[in-house]
Amino acid sequence: MKVKRFFAPDMRRAIKQVRDTLGADAVILSNQQVEGGIEIIAAVDYDEGLLAPATTSSSPATAGGTGVPADAAAPVSRAARTWAGASRDATQASATAGTPSGPESPGAPEPEVRAETRRPVAVDWSQDPAIVAMRDEIRELRGLLENQLAHLAWGDTRRRHPLYTEAMRRLGQMELDSGLMERFARPALTARDSDEAWRQVLAALTAAVPEARDELLDHGGVLALVGSTGVGKTTSVAKLAARYVLRHGARHVALVTTDSYRIGAHEQLMTYGRLLGIPVQVASDPKSLRDTLSSLADKRLVLIDTAGMSQRDLRLTEQFATLADAGVPVRTLLVLSATAHASVLAETLRAFSGVVLDGAIVTKLDEAASLGGVLSALIGQQLPLHFMTDGQRVPEDIQVARAGDLVDQAAELARKLALPREESMAERFGGQQAHVHV
Ligand SMILES: Nc1nc2c(ncn2[C@@H]2O[C@H](COP(=O)(O)OP(=O)(O)O)[C@@H](O)[C@H]2O)c(=O)[nH]1
Ligand SMILES: [Mg+2]
Fold first, then answer.
1. CB of 397 closer than 6 A to ligand 1?
2. Which long-range contacts (CB under 8 A, 24 or more apart) does 43-52 make?
3. Is 235 a domain residue?
4. 374 and 342 share a domain?
5. Would you place residue 433 in the very low, low, confident or very high pLDDT band (cuts 50, 70, 90)?
6. What Cα–Cα distance (Å) separates residue 162 from each residue in 190, 239, 245, 276, 407?
7. Can you tell me the mean pLDDT for 122-134?
8. Mean predicted lDDT score pLDDT of the chain
9. Do residues 103 and 156 both lie within one domain?
10. 232 lines ligand 1 (CB under 6 A)
11. What is the mean pLDDT of residues 381-401?
12. How far is CA 18 from CA 15, 26, 39, 101, in A?
């Protein structure tokens, strides 16, 4: 029998030392946590019978809850008693060196065991390097298998429903959200040809975009535009104000900005106010906002321009809902830039999740490369779309929203982008094709 003590900072490295030094047949006789790491006593060519008389009861150091299998636990307990003292000396000697010590002398006297530094720990077999390697390999194999199955499933769906998979790819080209791609490709399952399939897909998409069917400005009231910095809130406020002034004159409209702390922030709005001949007020906190809105009670339309989505901006925006109690209901529109990436739009929606939103304005349609992100956001949130803007000119570049126009433009832009490759479609959707039935 060859017995050896090992010390390492953690179980994984301790087991590796045992394996490297004594080989795969090594038996762990005891293991425990000591100052600075784990101590393991291990043996090869181990004869359990030799140690059997050493004890008949479990050692307090290892009894119960060690996680060692029942058949291994008994020898571990006996051995731990036999070797505990010697191993502790060796621990102290090698704790700083951090390397395995030489074979212990079985004849060494058994010193007192300090309970606070010696706690039994379970052998964490899952950390065994051989098991870790095997697990990695199984994971890799599973990945390969899943990939193969996904390709087979996607290939099968392509054979059985070519119009559906073609529609899926075209929706992918539009950069629509994955879940929505599957939903809106479904009409293609029953179409007769490719053109009919695509028409039906676009019709389903159009029907799903919530469109505000009334002309918001004609109702008047207090309208606040919120959204992240730079999306076009101030410009849109000016466009809406100008649109109103052109129809109803300047007398009944006023502008308010809560964007008061950035240098020059409200000058932009002041300039538009001067050009349009309408008053502009600044309100920087809930109280001044309430007072300002009360003082503008005689106006038919009040447009509030806000800053962005910093904590301060959001706190103030969240106050809009409470203004209804003060007799001034505020309708809040989220301004989304069509140029924003899907992840940025998702972040914006998260930031404004505490705000009651009454609808949306989509800006910068003239600069967008794809509209899948903004379509996904509108459909996902069921935000009624009120206006769309497509340029910097005030007041020309704003239109009442038409879901059909937005979807047509999305399809038009998508044609300039590459179709997603079949392999990437298989990887994204192959695993979910089992449920596709006509
Ligand atoms: N191309 C284009 N630019 C726009 C549009 N709307 C606003 N902008 C520009 O975007 C920039 C930021 O607009 P601004 O209204 O200050 O954004 P805010 O920070 O949300 O108030 C300005 O240069 C605007 O002229 C649009 O529909 N198309
Ligand atoms: Mg602004």
1. yes
2. 43/1, 43/2, 43/3, 43/4, 43/79, 44/1, 44/2, 45/1, 45/2, 46/1, 46/3, 46/75, 47/1, 48/75, 50/1, 51/75, 51/78, 51/79, 51/82, 52/78
3. yes
4. yes
5. low
6. 11, 46, 53, 56, 23
7. 76
8. 82
9. no
10. yes
11. 95
12. 5, 7, 11, 11
Ligand found nearest the CA of 240: 1
Atom nearest to 391 CA in ligand 1: 28
Least confident range from 10-19, 68-77, 246-255, 303-312: namely 68-77
- Tell me which residue range forms the domain holding 152: 132-208+422-429
Q: What is the pLDDT of residues 310-361, one digit of tens each?
A: 888 888 888 888 787 778 899 999 999 999 999 999 999 999 998 999 999 9
The answer, yes or no, to whether any atom of ligand 1 lies below 6 A from the CB of 366, is yes
Tally the domains of the chain: 3
What protein residues have CB closer than 5 angstroms to ion ligand 2? Answer: 233-234
The response to whether residue 396 sits with its C-beta less than 6 Å from ligand 1 reads no
Please name which ligand lies nearest the alpha carbon of 229.
1
